[in-house]
Structure formats: structure tokens, C-alpha cells
Amino acid sequence: MRVFPGSSRVKHPADREAGFPELPPGNTGAVTDPWLDAVADLRTEMDAALREDAYEVFLAEAARCRLLDRVGVARILLRSGVVIDGLLTAEEEPALEGHLTVRTPAGREVLVLLAAVVTITGTSPGLRPEAESAARALAAPRITARLREAWRSGEQVRALTSRGVWLTGVVTHVGADHVDVDVDGSCVTVALQSADAWELG
Questions:
Q1: In a domain, 78, yes or no
Q2: Which of 25, 66, 67, 199 sits at a 20 to 30 Å CA gap from 137?
Q3: How many domains does the chain have?
Q4: Tens digits of residue pLDDT in 51-82
Q5: How many CA atoms lie within 13 A of 151 on its CB side?
């Protein structure tokens, strides 16, 4: 068989019997393409860059998450030592300024002062669009608005003081920074900043 200069002879099974050498073990005869290597390296670099960008976005989103955005069934330990169990309802109900809204297993609504929270167990971060978070923060009503509703309806409320004492009664006055509660015929004035939680409805 004629072999042209610069070409390689095609290996035929009969060639093995003719004494043509076999390839060394582990050598498939494949030629490494430098372009394929370059593309693989570039893809690896791009994947790493994308992962880095995604991580930066994740950190930025995590930084926006507030206690008010936590979701799920929660066990909340307060500075008074009292533990409140319930479902955080940030996704279903409007947030109150400075308070977590918790729905207890009995169906009662508990408004927990954020400054009184020590730990929350069992929840996960809940993120929402940044524009929506800003709008919710600006539109968040104060707890006094919710307490005035209780005053108007005459419903019974419970106030948890920072000393861990529950006061049960009816709201008789709501001021800018305090609330009067009729407890067994006595007027008890509760400073809003010292009330760890309010149980309503």
C-alpha cells in the first residue's frame, strides 16, 4: 500500500500480524485540542464568576431580611423570660411598626415588641421585593392604632409587662406613649415601651 508523505498509514487488523507496534497502555491516540482546553478553562472561570455574583446577590438579599420578615411557627423568648408560641403572620397581615404579629394556637393575636425579643426558634427568613418592603415600612401603622380599635370595641386585652406579669382588662384610654387598662376596677397605666406584648382578639 502506498503512503503519501505527511500522511499516516491506516491501521488494519492484519497490520498487527505484520508487526506494526501497538500503542502504549493508557494511550488512546487522541490528540489534545488546545481550543477545547481553552474553552473548558473559560467555562470554569465564567462559572466561578457567576457563582461569585450569585453569592453577592444572596448576601445583599439576606441583609434586607428583618425580624418582621421571619415566617413560620415560632417560639419567641422575651426579655421578661416569658415564651410565646405561635405562627408569625408577616405574609398575611400588615406589619405593625416595631412589633411582630403572632397568631397563637388558640387563635388569639399577640403583638410582640421587637425590642423585647431575645431569641426566635423555628422560623426561616422571608424575603419580599425591596420596593414592597419599603412601602410596607412606610405604611406600617403604630400599635396605638390597633389598641384604639380594642378601646372602641370594648374587647378584653392582656398586656405583658417587661417584668413578666400579664395584666388582663379593658382598654379605657390610648395615649401617644401609654395605655390605660381597667384591671378589676383599677386603672393601670402601661407605658408602651415597657409592654413586651399585647394579646388581643
A1: yes
A2: 199
A3: 1
A4: 777 777 777 777 778 888 888 999 999 999 99
A5: 14
What CATH number has the domain bearing residue 162? 2.30.30.600
- SS3 category, 158: strand
Domain of 149 in residue numbering reads as 67-200
Phi then psi dihedrals of residue 104, to 5 deg: -80, 165
Q: How far apart are CA 153 and CA 18, in angstroms?
A: 106
CB 100 within 8 A of CB 111: yes
pLDDT digits (tens, 9 = 90+) for 29-56: 444 556 566 667 667 777 777 777 777 7
What cell does 193 get? 415601651
Closest CA to 178 of 196, 198, 161, 193: 193
CB under 8 Å to 195, separation ≥6 — which residues?
113, 159, 160, 161, 162, 179
CA distances to 32, 71, 91 from 11, rounded to whole Å, are 20, 69, 72
CA distances from 124 to 103, 150, 153 (A): 16, 31, 35
Main-chain dihedrals φ then ψ at residue 2, nearest 5 degrees: -85, 135
